[in-house]
Design brief:
The protein is mainly alpha-helical. The chain is 62% helix and 1% strand. It is elongated, with a radius of gyration of 38 Å.
Amino acid sequence: MAFALLKRGPSTFERAADGSMTLMEHIHELRNRLFRASLAIVVGFGFGVWLSGPVLHLLQKPYCDLPKARLVNGTCNFVQLGPADLFLLQMKVALWVGLIIAAPIWLYQLWAFIAPGLHRHERRYAYFFTGLAAPLFGGGAVLAYFVTSKGLEFLLNVSGGGDITTTLDITRYISFVTNLILLFGVAFEFPLIVLMLNFVGLASAKRLFGWWRVAIFVFFAFSAVVTPTPDPFGMTALAICLSALYFGAVAVAFLNDRRRGRGREVYSDLSDDEVSPLDLTPEPVEAGQRVDTVAPVGAPEPVAAPAPIERRYDDMT
């Protein structure tokens, strides 16, 4: 069964050019792509099981580095509320690591199935946005890791006096950190939406720059709502980074408009609610040359009308 699924047949790239691919062939192609992607994720999951310990230690580091998180003997301890909580957490972390390790393979399988249905310029845009999405998500994850340590330090300083010992549940703590990383990573993808609006022609760079006040307000409101810690560090850091990315995207939009020649139209300086001026001055029209009437070739000569017959009064009898 596995050999039959892995057996290579005519690929989508080979069939889509002549339009001879049927619906069943599309389904078979999708099945093969999904099987290869799933096989890559399983292999990545195997590596994730091996790397789950170091990854868990890395995720625990923001809390364990704090002075208040250490016990008298200098160790940093967590608790688990269920007997299988730590095992399930390790499997979950292993799956995340496996998805990241196998990302080049399953993303390629997805792209190989979708790309033949796209135009050349759409493929070029997809390469551009995909190349920017991964670094932006990584930058958001790094910022979330930094915000986690600052936020935990703030929370531990304001949560009770010195006679209270804080011990965190390992499952809830890892969920808190990973959700924060995912949230910041997805938020950092917002400049791609701004660039997409400009590249498809829905919003010019001048209009995007005119929205900067509204954008900054939305960024701070969004950061205040989605940041799970009540401290001002995480909210401010996320809002400032989103604002900087927005202005960077607007700068790229200005370069794109200049390359495409946008803003040089006749009525580009007018606002949307302004009526364009009309020049009502009539243009002078010169008199044309006189054309003599010429009889067409082969036309009959005009016949003169007969002269009226003169009658006298005595002819009426």
